[in-house]
Amino acid sequence: MTDTLFLQPDALSANAFSLLCEQSLTLSDYPLAAEAEKNVLIYHNAALLEPVQSDKIAVLSELHRALSTGPGVLVIKGAYPDSEVIERHNRVFDAIFQQEAARGNAGDHFSAAGNNGRIWNSLQKTAEQDAGSFIEYYSNPTLALVSEAWLGPWYQMTAQVNVVRPGGKAQQPHRDYHLGFQENRDVQRFPLPLQLLSQYLTLQGAVAHSAMPLESGPTQLLPFSQQYPGGYLAWRQPEFIDYFRQHAVQLPLAQGDALFFNPALFHAAGNNVTRDHVRIANLLQVSSAFGKPMETVNRLRLLQLIYPALRQRYQNEQLHGAELAALVAAAADGYSFPTNLDSDPPLAGLAPQTQQQLLLHALQEDWNAEYFNQQLERQQRLRSA
Ligand SMILES: [Fe+2]
């Protein structure tokens, strides 16, 4: 009888891992990509968004392949073409840092004290701080396109800010949420098909909010390493760490570029060896509608805070199409479940109304903020058990 569906650490093979990681990327397999650098696919934002008009399925398919059977990592140059959008959002981050420092916030438990700054749940906190900047930032169609390519519709956006000051030290190589946050003894209780499945429940992204020259320590990446089935048990083992140290690659990023990778890709933040360059990223962790995200977001509160500004932009026709869809997807819950089917039966079809549907309905009907708030709270009540 075989137990191979419950993988044990002694079945891991650094040799098999290295064979996977030694694949090289064939650029012609990814017709929308501009180039391949160190086995990382590089896309130009406009060249990715433009073909969405004529063949969105082809764009989604290529991005999904890149993250799954391809190198597992891609960069989109100029994902935020207007640097003012990033700069305004940086000022919002600064204000949040100041408020949290004044409250004696402990900072980042993933690094040595003093070197890093962290804003957990920057998604909700930026909406609380500045609704206009939130709307401007998350109405980005590129974030929505890559999220949808990996996760399909109704994904759940979360975000965390990471600031690495000069002297900030590199991380150990690792995989990310879900199983990257569990100890080996718990990982090995999950049958291998579930371990493989889990990578399809999350997308990792990072938007460069400062320039990230190599000396500032942009993320070290090991292309194709997401393909190793036993990787969730392997990343703490010395042979795998050694292989990573010898073969990981880094790419400089410009402010406004975005990096996306499969959460099963081996990666680690780099050393910031500059004297004076502060590296700032907004990390995006996007979850499938079917998965539990890492962070709670109070989406009801978030929506109530942004609704007046959103309504105004909608009525002035400043926000529509792919930008409006991206904003709604990032802000509101798009999934009907879990719910209470006694009090929240489907209005049409088989699935009860979602927060996203309610929000769009409110905008189309031009509800005032008070009525919107009431209806949103009513929906939440009906969904509760
Ligand atoms: Fe990570």
TrEMBL record:
Q: Does the keyword Oxidoreductase apply?
A: yes
GO MF terms listed in the record are: phytanoyl-CoA dioxygenase activity
List the InterPro entries. PhyH, Phytyl_CoA_dOase-like
Gene3D superfamilies registered for this protein in UniProt: q2cbj1_9rhob like domain
| Highest taxon in the source lineage | Bacteria
Q: Which UniProt keywords apply?
A: Dioxygenase, Oxidoreductase
This protein's record includes keyword Iron: no
What is one Gene Ontology biological process annotated in the Swiss-Prot or TrEMBL record?
Answer: fatty acid alpha-oxidation
What residues form the membrane-spanning segments?
A: none
Q: Which PANTHER family match?
A: PHYTANOYL-COA ALPHA-HYDROXYLASE, PHYTANOYL-COA DIOXYGENASE FAMILY PROTEIN (AFU_ORTHOLOGUE AFUA_2G09620)
What protein am I looking at?
Phytanoyl-CoA dioxygenase
Top-level taxonomy? Bacteria, Pseudomonadati, Pseudomonadota, Gammaproteobacteria, Enterobacterales
